[in-house]
Amino acid sequence: MVSSAKPRLHVAVGVILQQQQVLLAKRHASKHQGDRWEFPGGKLEQGESVLSALGRELQEEIGITVTSAEPLMQLSHDYPEREVLLDIYLVTAFSGEPHGAEGQPLLWVPIQQLNTLALPDANQPIVTRLQQQFA
User: Fold this and answer.
1) Which of 17, 18, 74, 103 stands 20 to 30 A from 5 (CA)?
2) How many percent of the chain have pLDDT more than 70?
C-alpha cells in the first residue's frame, strides 16, 4: 500500500489586536497562498512549543516581542497539497514597532473589514471568530 500522505504543518499564528484593528502581513507571491493577506506567524520547529514559535516568528517576521498572548482557537485545514494545524493566539501586548522585517507589506485592518481582503482559505474561521467576539 502506497502512502500518499500530504505534509502536515503545525503553525503558530498571532492575531495582533489594537483598538478593534488587527495586523495583517502580505504573503510573498511565490509562497503557498501567495499574494494574500495573513495573520503573521509560522511553522513550529522540532521540539518547540507553540508560544516559543509564536514569539520567534513574530520577532523574525514583523520585529515585535510578544509580552502577552492568550489562546484564541485551534483549527485544521486541508489544502489540496498540504494540511495545516493552526494554533491561533490573541496577542494583546507587545514591544517594538511592527514592520515588514522580510520586506512584506503590513496593514492594520478594522475587524469588521476583514472580509474585504483576500486571505488564505484556512484563515476564514479566524475572521468569523474575531467578528463574532470583537465587532
Assistant:
1) 74
2) 93
